[in-house]
Amino acid sequence: MSDYQAMQAELTGAIAAATDLDALEALRVAALGKAGSVTGLLKTLGSLTPEERQTVGPQIHALREGVTAALAERKAALEGAALEVKLAGERLDMTLPAAAAPRGSVHPVSQVMDELAEIFADMGFAVATGPEIEDDWHNFTALNIPETHPARAMHDTFYFPESSESAAQRMLLRTHTSPVQIRTMMSEGPPIRIIAPGRVYRSDSDATHTPMFHQVEGLVIDRGIHMGHLKWTLETFLKAYFETDDIVLRLRPSYFPFTEPSAEVDVGYKHEKGRRIVGGHGDDAGHSWMELLGSGMVNRRVIANCGLDPDVWQGFAFGVGVDRLAMLKYGMDDLRAFFDGDLRWLAHYGFGALSVPTLSGGISA
Questions:
Q1: Which of 177, 231, 312, 332 has the most neighbouring CB atoms within 10 Å?
Q2: What is the CATH number of the domain that holds 189?
Q3: How far is it, in rounded angstroms, from Cα 135 to Cα 121?
Q4: Is there a single domain that holds both residue 73 and residue 114?
Q5: Residue 103: inside a domain
Q6: Same domain, 78 and 121
Q7: Residue 1: what pLDDT?
Q8: Count of the separate structural domains present in the chain
Q9: Does residue 361 sit within a domain?
Q10: What does the pLDDT read at residue 12?
Q11: Are strands 212-222 and 314-321 parallel, antiparallel or unpaired?
C-alpha cells in the first residue's frame, strides 16, 4: 500500500467515525481546506518533474476524490439521521384548521339576497338587474304612474338637477326596482320569470324607513296567468324563506298604478319573547295580521307600453323590502342600524363567510 492509499484510508476512517456535522466539517477543513493535508499535496505537483507528475499526480487526485466522496456520503447520512430524530420528536395535529377562520361577517342584507335568489331559482326565476340612476319614463311613465301621483313629488323622489332634456328623460335615483321589469319586457321576449333585487332611494328616514334601502320585485309574463299563480308563488316563497309550512296569506284589494287588480298581502304572525314570529292564521287567538308586500296582475297599459300585446300576454308582479324581510326573520327592530357601519352590530347579526344558503342544506345559516 502506498503512502497516498494509507492516507486515504486514514482520512475516510475518520470521516466515517464523525458523529455530527460539526466534527465532519472540521475533518473537511483539515483535509481540503486552504491549509489542509490533501490541498498541501496538490500544491506540490507544480514542483515535480514531468515524469514524477505523471506517476504521483493520479494518486493525489484519486486521494482528493476519495476524501470528497467520503465527506459527501457521511454528510448525507448525518443529515438524514438528524431529520429522522426531528420528525420523531414532532407531532402534527391533523384536526387543526389549515388556516385561521375568516374574520369578516356577511351583512344580513347580502345574506337575505342570497336566500331569495336560491328560493326563486328553484321556481324557475332568473335574477335581473338594472341601473340605479333612471329616467322618468322607465321609473314612472312606463309604469302607468300619472303626472299627479305623489311618488313623483320632490319630497319623495331624489331628482337630478334639471337640464335641457325632456320631462321623460329627466334623471333620478330609482324609487323601486320596477324599471328593471320594464327594461326586461322591452329587451326580452316572453315568457318572462325574473326577480329584480337591488338598492332603491326615497326621501324618507325613521326607524322603519331610510333614504336608501333594498327591494326585491318579481315579474311573470306568460299566457294564461291569473291571481292563483300569484298567490301560489307568494305562499311557496314565504314558506321557504321563513322555513315553516304554517304560512297563511290574506290578500286585500288595493291600488297600484302598474297592477290591476292589485292586492296588499298580509301574513299571520304572533309575538313571542318580544319578537314577531311569522306563521299561523291572523284571526286565531294570539295572532294578528301584518302587511308584508304589494302585488297584483300587471296592468294592460304597462304591458302595452313595453311593446307586448295585452290580449295575448298576461302577468303578475310583487314587491317587498329586503331589509324588512331581514328584520322579521332575524329579530332586528331598527332599520337605521343596517347602515350605521357598527362592527359590533354586524358581529352580532352578521353571517359567516361560508354560510351559503341552499334549499337542501337549509336557507338559514
A1: 177
A2: 3.30.930.10
A3: 29
A4: no
A5: no
A6: no
A7: 52
A8: 2
A9: no
A10: 85
A11: antiparallel
First to last CA, the chain: 83
| The residue to which cell 294592460 is assigned | 300
C-alpha cell recorded at residue 156: 319623495
Prediction pTM value: 0.67
Let me know whether 85 and 130 are in one domain.
no
Nearest-10 Cα torsion for 7, 12, 18, 23: 60
Residue 47, domain extent:
3-89
| Mean pLDDT, 10 residues at a time, the chain of 365 residues | 78 87 87 84 80 80 86 89 84 72 80 91 93 92 84 76 70 92 92 94 73 92 94 94 90 92 91 82 84 94 94 95 88 81 84 72 59
For cell 326580452, the residue is 188
DSSP H/E element including 327: helix 322-330
Closest CA to 145 of 309, 255, 222: 255
Within a domain: 352:
no
Residues 135 and 284 in one domain: yes
- Per-residue cell: 182: 320594464
Helices assigned H by DSSP within 90-226:
108-122, 136-139, 178-187
Angle at 290 (CA atoms; ends 289, 296), nearest 5 degrees: 105
> 112 with 83, same domain?
no
Asked if 326 and 113 touch (Cβ cutoff 8 Å), the reply is no
Alpha carbons 331 and 312: distance in angstroms, whole number: 44
